[in-house]
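Marked as duplicate of an earlier ticket. Keeping the data here for the record.
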Amino acid sequence: MDKKKLILIASIAVVFIGLVFLSAYFYVKSEENARHVPIIITENERRIYSPPIPDTLEFCGERVPLEDFDVRERIDREFLVNTYWHSAMLLYIKRANRWFPLIEQILKKNGVPDDFKFMAVAESGLTNVVSPDGATGFWQLMEAAAKKYGLEINNEVDERYNVAKSTQAACDYLKEAHARFGTWTLTAASYNNGVNGIENQIGRQQTRNYYNMYLNEETYRFVARIVSIKEIFKNPHKYGFYFSQSDLYPRFDTYEVKINYPVKDFAQFAKNYGINYKILKIFNPWLRDNFLKNKNRKSYTLELPPKGEVKIEPDSL
């Protein structure tokens, strides 16, 4: 091969290698630049972001130590769960418009911090649910505890379903527990784990700081759940929840009817007041049967809607 051909081949090789290195350089630069260029999101693309956690959080005026990695991760978990369980959180917000005014009034009267209204949300979602172990109502009271704080429970009446009376019972518990533990955070934890349960852990772990305790999964998450719900309620738009006032459930006006006599048939009783059995039960879920023997002639107070306040379908019978 003559000298000219060798020079030509060498030149082509140099140009080829140069092009390879140049292409690699521009590829790397384009990748670097891509990290700093805003991404255009297509119409059908969906992105999930970690919800923001405020720099400071508190419960009943008591600081949440977010500098503790374990506490921060607990808080993060509850913000994720409550932000992205959209249907549940929206229902909590809707129901709160109906029930918070009543709950706030009773908490204030008892000197219990307003933040505890969010504990009712965490416990029951502001519905009269029954847990697998029998905890009942907005405040998830067990039968023994409910009776201790003055609620009546039998086959015909269960006042754990009475929001006003069960809120008062919860306040009585919280005040008693706070006098024992000294902080509202430990008080809230004891509501979930029991006074004796928390006392045992204080002795076992040699600390009276809830955030320094190693507890069962439910109690471990309990205060963080309340705190996250509170923050989302305070800043719903920040966490993606948008609604108008008309979307919220209204608080119905009611008037009181006192009875101190037996009622043989609450369906007929309801008709006498211009409503039906369904409406009677919705406003008075603590009535657990369609009759009330009331042998002792105890006085009960029923809440009924004024005539025309709720729409009632005509009966077909």
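See parent ticket for discussion. The CA atoms of residues 135 and 142 lie 4 Å apart.
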